[in-house]
Amino acid sequence: MWLPCGCTSKYVASSFARRILASHLHVSGRSRCNVAAFMPEAAGFEGVSGRAALRELSVSNSESFWAAVARHRLSWSIPFHTVQDCDLSRGKIKWFEGGKLNVSVNCLDRHVHTCPERVALIWERDERGSEMKYTYRELLEMTCRVGNLLRRHGVKRGDCVTIYMPTCPLAVASMLACARIGAAHNVVFAGFSADALAERIRDAQSSTVITVNQGVRGGKVIELKKTVDTAVESCPTVKQVFVAMRTDNPVTMTARDIEDVVCEPAVMNSEDVLFLLYTSGSTGKPKGLVHTQAGYLLYAALTHRYVFSYHDGDVFGCVADIGWITGHSYVVYGPLANGATTVLFESTPIYPDPGRYWDMVERLKINQFYGAPTAIRLLLKYGDQWVNKYDRSTLKTLGSVGEPINTEAWEWYHRVVGDGRCPVVDTWWQTETGGICIAPRPSDPDAEIVPGMAMRPFFGIKPVLIDTERCFGFLQGELLTSNNTSGALCMAQPWPGMARTIHNNHQRFIETYFQPYPGYFFTGDGAYRSEEGYYQITGRLDDVINVSGHRIGTAEIEDVVVRAQLSCPAVAESAVIGYTHSIKGQGVYAFVVLKKGIDVKEADLSRQLNGMVSEKIAKYASPDFIQFAQRLPKTRSGKIMRRVLRKVVESDLEGLGDLSTLDDPAAVQEIIQGRRCHV
Ligand code: WT7
């Protein structure tokens, strides 16, 4: 029933496909370049003269482009009849309807069919030098075992399974097992607290949780099972928790491992849910973004191959945790769909020493390394010797993700880590976009790369900049068509990898992404378009901050801070902002106004607030600085002027800007005097 990749000839011969191919033969009569050699998926577009023309075509006729690519890249059990049915103004996004497939078959079975002994996963365990390899055959077996186990315990198609695990093979197998039996997964980053985990389990209405007894990271034991125990106390939906042992022996994954290793894959519709992934927005409540089967997988696979110039046989090392979208798309789904060898990095960049990444590159012969600027900035401070100690000659491409990469870090990454010979690709994207949207490549292999710029939109992506002027509280949108300009970064047309909705809250999905600029998808980021037409991300336009590449809503932290109490509720109000931090990118700075007549020691309360934020959200969200204030600068209508707070914290008193709407100017002076850090 399952066709291995390349066996979709029945569909290629369909009249629909013929129509697409025919309609593009006239695209260009000029010098033909062999597009097929660069992108076999686009072999149908024979008349296209080069990659730039192919990119243009992928935008101007995205439907034909994606149809051709989807047919070529994915194995379908039933071909799709409609390429897309999207209406951005209503937040309606559907791709490849009528098509049926199974994501785990696409990631595993078809490779087992052709190359069962190829290594799928290299688990770079926390203990240096103890890596373990798993072939595609082994990963399929493990996936089937977990799939059967879940099925046997009543997990059905459409159910949602929460996975609270470190980055390890069993976590990957659990994700793929869900995909295999048609359940959605909800991976929660194992650094999240019991409260944060519980909130996500409840919102997702999960009845099953998969975890491990303990995690190990940076030499420390992390009590994941205990956290789950605490979390599920407030989750009435949870009926069962599977606990794997994080030991050296992969077969002891559960007590019930005498299983049939064949697990019949469910036949899924293109638009069935593949997973939920919670991320922060500008309100206190995290949102469960929903990604579906075919479009997501296709987009992850295509970007993985072309942004990083991945070639068969390469070892791909993305050091992200599977709890984030980067882990989903570039540790698991993209590489596995492409039959790649993908690295699961369980440790930290400085354990046991700051040479860890490069030692791993040498040992595992990594060809593409994909990491976060925050780690690069940290390692830069330890000096070149930790890099130079190791042989990095296998490296071909270096990737950066999650936050802006400053020029110093970019240069060091390029010059020291990559010996000046590997392109550095700064990749911009989000949980919402499913995969990379703006990155320097693909393009001609020797196309210019500007340090610190994401630069060029990927195939099928049409970014636009829109004026951010506010008018009567609504965002007004004038399309900015010239270059050398900045504005709100929006996408003018849909692509297969984009999120489909917010779990249980389609209205919030529409309001957040499609109403600010009607007809466009609003990313929440600002961007600059250079004279040459290249994009540079300038940062969030909302109250979302980015701490060490971790996205967090300031409102989420404020919600915790105002709940603080010593003997009685103590906090009247709070404002949390992000400030520029030399390693973390942004740090958390909290302003706290105490209730009148409250007599508490500020140091005690600070300690408690830090503890509470770690406990209710995660350690990385805990404020670096807490400033107690009598009052906060507000507009006459009572809105806290965060812009002013940010300027004060960053010691940019000249840049305070227009203070005419300020209710009481003395509030600003008080805040300046009480500053806790002078950066
Ligand atoms: C936000 C998305 C991208 C996957 C991991 C984070 C920021 C992301 C870049 C970049 C500047 C970036 C944006 C974006 N961001 N990549 N290359 N340059 N900023 O996914 O947690 O959903 O966060 O991260 O602000 O909106 P996420």
From TrEMBL:
<dbReference type="InterPro" id="IPR011904">
    <property type="entry name" value="Ac_CoA_lig"/>
</dbReference>
<feature type="domain" description="AMP-binding enzyme C-terminal">
    <location>
        <begin position="565"/>
        <end position="639"/>
    </location>
</feature>
<feature type="domain" description="AMP-dependent synthetase/ligase">
    <location>
        <begin position="109"/>
        <end position="494"/>
    </location>
</feature>
<dbReference type="GO" id="GO:0019427">
    <property type="term" value="P:acetyl-CoA biosynthetic process from acetate"/>
</dbReference>
<dbReference type="InterPro" id="IPR025110">
    <property type="entry name" value="AMP-bd_C"/>
</dbReference>
<feature type="domain" description="Acetyl-coenzyme A synthetase N-terminal">
    <location>
        <begin position="53"/>
        <end position="107"/>
    </location>
</feature>
<dbReference type="Pfam" id="PF00501">
    <property type="entry name" value="AMP-binding"/>
</dbReference>
<dbReference type="InterPro" id="IPR000873">
    <property type="entry name" value="AMP-dep_synth/lig_dom"/>
</dbReference>
<dbReference type="GO" id="GO:0050218">
    <property type="term" value="F:propionate-CoA ligase activity"/>
</dbReference>
<dbReference type="InterPro" id="IPR032387">
    <property type="entry name" value="ACAS_N"/>
</dbReference>
<dbReference type="Pfam" id="PF16177">
    <property type="entry name" value="ACAS_N"/>
</dbReference>
<dbReference type="InterPro" id="IPR045851">
    <property type="entry name" value="AMP-bd_C_sf"/>
</dbReference>
<comment type="similarity">
    <text>Belongs to the ATP-dependent AMP-binding enzyme family.</text>
</comment>
<keyword id="KW-0443">Lipid metabolism</keyword>
<dbReference type="InterPro" id="IPR042099">
    <property type="entry name" value="ANL_N_sf"/>
</dbReference>
<keyword id="KW-0067">ATP-binding</keyword>
<dbReference type="GO" id="GO:0003987">
    <property type="term" value="F:acetate-CoA ligase activity"/>
</dbReference>
<dbReference type="GO" id="GO:0005524">
    <property type="term" value="F:ATP binding"/>
</dbReference>
<dbReference type="Pfam" id="PF13193">
    <property type="entry name" value="AMP-binding_C"/>
</dbReference>
<keyword id="KW-0547">Nucleotide-binding</keyword>
<keyword id="KW-0436">Ligase</keyword>
<dbReference type="InterPro" id="IPR020845">
    <property type="entry name" value="AMP-binding_CS"/>
</dbReference>
<dbReference type="GO" id="GO:0006629">
    <property type="term" value="P:lipid metabolic process"/>
</dbReference>
<dbReference type="GO" id="GO:0016208">
    <property type="term" value="F:AMP binding"/>
</dbReference>
<protein>
    <recommendedName>
        <fullName>Acetyl-coenzyme A synthetase</fullName>
        <ecNumber>6.2.1.1</ecNumber>
    </recommendedName>
</protein>
<dbReference type="GO" id="GO:0005739">
    <property type="term" value="C:mitochondrion"/>
</dbReference>
